[in-house]
Amino acid sequence: MSVVIHTQDLTKRFQIAPGLFRRSARYVNAVDRVSLDIREGEIVGLIGESGSGKTTLARVLLGLTPATEGVAQVNGRDIVSVRRAELRKMREDVAVVFQDPAANLNPRQTVESSIIRPLVIRGMKKAEARRKAAEALEKVKLDASYLRAYPHQLSGGQQQRIAIARAMVLDPRIMILDEPTSALDISVQAQVLNLLLDLQEEYHLTYLVITHDINVIRYIADRIAVMYMGRLVEIGAADDVLEHPIHPYTINLEQFVPALDPNRRSDKRRSALTEEKTLASQRPDACILCESCPYAVDRCAHARPELTEYTPGHFAACNRRVNEDDSSK
Amino acid sequence: MMKKTLRALARNKNLLVGGIMVLIVVVMALFAGLIAPYPYNEAHLLDKMKPPCAAYPFGTDDFGRDMLSRVIYGAQPALRVALLAMIIEMGIGITLGLIAGYYGGVVDHAVTFVGDLTWCVPPIVLTMAVITMIGKGLDNVIIATALVSWAQYTRIVRAKTQALRGMAFVETAVAFNERDSAILLRYILPNVMPSIIVLASLSIPQTIMSTTALSFLGMGAQPPSPDWGLALSASFRFITTAPWLAVFPGLALVFTVFAFNLFGEGLRDMLDPRLKV
Amino acid sequence: MNDALLEVNRLSVGYKVEDGWLSAVHDVSFAIRKGEFFALVGESGCGKSTIASTIMRLSLDHNERLEGEVRFEGHDLIRATEPEMEAIRGSGIGMIFQNPLDSLNPVYTVGWQIDEALRAGGMDARSARKRTVELMEAVQIPDAARRANAFPHELSGGMRQRVMIAMMLSRSPRLLIADEPTTALDVTVEAQILEIMKDMRDRTGASVLMITHNFGIVAETADHVGIMYAGELVECGSVYEIFARPSHPYSFALLNALPRRRKRDGRIQTIEGTVPRILGESRGCRFANRCPRAMDCCRTEAPPRRELGADHWMRCHLEVNA
Known about the structure:
The structure holds 3 protein chains of 3 kinds. Chain A is α/β, with parallel strands linked by helices. Chain A has 10 helices and 12 strands. Chain A has 2 domains: 3-93 and 172-328, 3-Layer(aba) Sandwich (Rossmann fold), CATH 3.40.50.300; 94-171, no CATH class. In chain A, α3 (111-121) crosses α4 (126-139), α4 (126-139) packs across α5 and α5 (156-168) packs parallel to α6. Chain A is globular, with a radius of gyration of 21 Å.
C-alpha cells in the first residue's frame, strides 16, 4: 500500500507572548516534530484532548496554515515549501469535513450552490456540475429535493451529510474529518459513521479522522495515533493501541473514558497525569509527562523520547518499555 | 414569552412606521415637482413674509417664496447627500474592511491606524477641515463626509470578516481552492451584508444632520438651494418675527432623521442574527 | 416509594409557538430517592432540559403551560410561590450547567462569589473564607487558598465547574440538578468532575439528577435511568437493567446505535426517520412512525405502562415476555 500522507518532524510554531524584540517573544509548538505515515485506503484515527494539536495538524495538512519546519507530503507533493501551484494541486486530492454542521455550509448559499462550487472552480460546466451534485446527494442518501434548501432549513445530520456530499463531489482520495460526529445526536451519529464507512469501502478512500471520542475511533479506525501537547506519543493498529497501550498518556486516557457498560464502571479513584498543563510548559528536551508520570526515570527529564517500534507497527515515544517494566516488578 | 412577543411586535412597528415615514421623504424628493404647489425658487414679490395661510400653508420667506414648496424640494439635497455619501463610504469602508480583516498583518495595521485617525477628531471638525481644503458646496460636503466616516464600515466589516475567516465553511472553501477574491465576495461579504445594511440605515440620519449643520454654517448648500440647513440659517434673523421660516424646515429635518432612525432600528432587529432562530 | 425526595407526577409542559402549543414534555412521571443518582437521558429536543428547568421553575412565564405536579420533600413546586421557590433554590435544590462561565460573575474572584453565598446564609467574612477554601478543597481544587483569589477567566473549564459545585455545596442542597455538566470538557476532566459529584453524593447523601445525552456518563454514574423520546419518558429502570435489557424499541435502538463495537464486527444500528415535532395533543405512541415493531394500536392509543421487573418499566404496547 502506498503512503498518501507522509510527515517527518513536522512542526507548527505559534507565538504566544508578543515581544518588543524578537528575543523576548515566546513560542509554543502546537505541532511538535510529528512524524506520521498514512497509507492508501486506511482509516487513521487521531485522538487527543483539546490543545493536543490534532486540529492544527489537520490544518497544516490541508494547507490552511503553513508549517514552520519539517516535511509534509500529500500524495507525494511537498506542502511545506508552499509553492502555490503545488498547494492547489494537492488540495484537489484532499477533502475536509469539520465538526460544526451549521458552520460547514455557507448560510447564504443553497445546498446546490455549495455542492457545485468546487466543481465550477475546476472548470466544469454548470449543467454537468448540477448532475454531479444530484449524484453526490444520492451517495449520502438524501433526495434531490434538498438541493434547493438553505442550510438553516436542515437538521444537523442533514447538514453534515451535505458537507460530506460536497467533499465527495471532487472524487478525493483522502478525506480529513475533524470531529465529524461530535455535534450530532447518537442516532444521527450512527447514521453518519455508517455512511462514512460505506463511502470509504466503496470508493477506497483514505480517512484521517480527528476526534476526542475513543468509542467512535474504536468503531471506525484501522490505526490510531495519539497526540498530546503537540507531540505524537503513540501510534499503532487500533487493537494494539486500545488493548495494549504503551505510552503512559494513552494508558491514562483510556482509563478515563467512560465504558458504555455499567458493569465495567470504575469505582476506584483515578488521578490524571495531565490536569492543568498548557503548551507553555513544553520543554523541548524532556518528555512532556516527565513531572507527573508514575513510570518516569531520570532520563525523562532531559531526553525527549523518540517514537520507537515496540511490537511490529506499534510505536510509542516513551523512555521506558512500560509493559516490560510492569511485568518485571 | 409574552413580553418577547410584544417586543417583537414593537420591533415590526419600528420597521413599519419608519418605513412609511422614509417612503414619504423619498416620494417628496422624487416627485417634488408634482407635489409642490410652486417651484421652490419662484418669488411672489407681493407675498413676502406671509404667515401660514390657505395659499401658503407654511407661509413665505423674505423673497416671497412658498415655504411648503421649499420644504418639499429640500428633501432632494438631503437625500442626495445622504445616499451618495453612504455609497462612497461603503465602497471605501467595505473594501478596506474585507482586506484588513481577511489578510491581517501589516495591511490590517495600516488600515486600522488610518481608520483610528478619523476617530480622533470630532467628525464635524474634520469634515469642515476637509471642506476648507477642497472648497464649499454640497458635492464637496459629500466627499468630505465620506472621507471622514468610512471607518465605521471598515470597523464592523473587519471584525465580522475576522470572525468569518475562521469558520468551517470558509476554511473548506479555501481547501477546495476557492480564490481569495471569491472567498471575500461569495462567502464573507454576503454574511456581512445584514450588518452593513443596518449600519447604513442608521448612518443616514447622522449624515443628514451633519450636512444640515454644514449648510447652516454656509459651507454646504449655497442659495438659492431649498436645503433645510440653509433655510434654518437664512431664517435665523427672523426667528422672533417669522418663526414659521425656521419651524417647518426644522420639522422636516426632525421627521426625516426620526424616519431613518426608526427604520434602521427596525432593520437591525429584523436582520440581527442573534434574534433569529 | 415514601423515601422519594423528588416526585414528578404526570408532568406536561407546553410552549406557545407560532402555530400552536408545542408539547415539550408530555405525561412524565418518575421519582428520585434520597441519595440516588438519577440520569435522564435522550437526544436533543427530547425535553430532558425542560424538565430540569421546570423543577427549578427557571422559565415560568405566560407562554408556558404546565400540568401535573413536581413534589420536592412533599411540597408541590409547580404551585409554590416565588418566595418559597427562592428558598428552595437557595438551600434545597442546586443546579449546575454546561457552561460555568455563564453562571459566574466575571468581575469578582471565585472565592468572593462562594463567600457571598455563605455570607447570605449569615456567616461572617472570616469564617466564610475559611469555609470557602474547605469547599474548594472538597471539590479537589489544588492550591485552593490561592485559587480562591482567581477570576473565573483565569481558571480552566474543569476548575470552573468545580467552583460551581463548591458554590452549590455551600448551601448543602438535598438535590443537585446537573444539566450536561461535562459536555464541554475533556474526558479526563469529565471523569474527575463525575467523581467529585459521586463523592459529594456519598458524603452528603444528596440526590443527583443528571441530564445528559452521553451514555458513557450514564453507565459510569447513574443508579437509575430514564430514557426520554420526543417529550415522553419511554423507559425507566436501574442502570444495569437498562443496559442489559433495554425493552422499549427506542431504548433498544438507541443503545444499539452506540459505537460499542468495531467495524469488522458489523455496522452499528441506526434509527430511520426523524423526531416528530408535536403540536397540541398527540394520539398514540410518539415513536410509532419510526418504530420497527409498530402495530395499528400504536398510532391511535396511548401506550400503557408495562412493568418489566422491580423498578423497571416502559410505555409501550408490546407485550412483555420473559
